[in-house]
Amino acid sequence: MTRHPIRLVLVAAAVALCTAQGMAQGRGQGAPEQYTIKPLPPGGPTPRLADGHPDLTGHWFPNGAGQGVSGRFGVDPLAIRTFDPKATPEEPPQFRPEALAKIKSMTPTELELSKSSVNCMPRGVPAIWLQNPYTTYMVHKPGLLVQLYEVLNNWRLIHLDGRPLPKDPEPFFHGNSTARWDGDTLVVESIGFDERTYIMPNGWYHSDQLKVTERYTRPSMNYLIVEITVDDPQVLLKPWKSAPRRWTLGNGEIYEFYCTNNLELEELEKLRQQELQKK
Questions:
Q1: For 225-260, how does the pLDDT look when each residue is reduced to its tens digit (9 = 90+)?
Q2: What does the DSSP assignment read for 3-41?
Q3: What is the model's pTM?
Q4: Position 4 confidence tier, pLDDT thresholds 50, 70, 90
Q5: Are 162 and 178 in contact (CB under 8 A)?
Q6: Residue ranges with strand state E in the chain
Q7: What whole-number distance in Å separates Cα of residue 259 and Cα of residue 155?
Q8: CA 166 remoteness from chain centre
Q9: Contact at 8 Å (CB) between 229 and 130?
């Protein structure tokens, strides 16, 4: 068999040149970035319970990926958020003048101490859905919805038998709830909240008149939509409604999460007393 060493060398050189050019173009600014963690697709149809209602059971992540994304590389920005502010803008709350003055009067340390991640207290409702970067596992059966929050190992039972709200509720972190179905949407109304909880970690406090409405829908296998309405006439000029926030179905582990040995809390309390003396 006749060999052509010069021709082989030329072919090899051409291949090497094309490969180098391709790598250079891949590193160029015009090349699209490749993400390893992308938005989770909707999946199959909505699973349903024996009574025909949507089954909300699942391990739900507060992002669009169906897995943890915090601190990881290669995450598509669309997989991080729970809603698109351009498609579903969220109106800011309108505070009563005296409530706004109270919020603005909070010192930096008081604002820090109001955060559940600092004071080690449960986030409560509705903050568990608005400012929670950790997962929630829900177990749903006719007559009962169980919510297991990974953060601080909190839990909540929501009875679905239509029982009325108490007339004189004991204040709880997650409130006192009643629930009903509106088509395929589970509507949960809650009152009677512990005064130590905050709606958002920016000083947005609440009064004993707070009423929270949660609307849960599962439009597909992989998506859970949570929409919150906050009605507090002593703090807000009108009820505030969140954007529909999409949580996605995952298949990971739920780990123990306890807030212990928080020495920072003691130091912050000292700083708070110093700031209050200067007021």
A1: 999 999 999 999 999 999 999 999 999 888 888 887
A2: --HHHHHHHHHHHHHHHHHHHHHHTSTTSPPPPSB-PPP
A3: 0.84
A4: very low
A5: yes
A6: 58-61, 136-141, 144-149, 154-159, 176-182, 185-191, 211-217, 223-231, 240-241, 245-250
A7: 15
A8: 28
A9: no
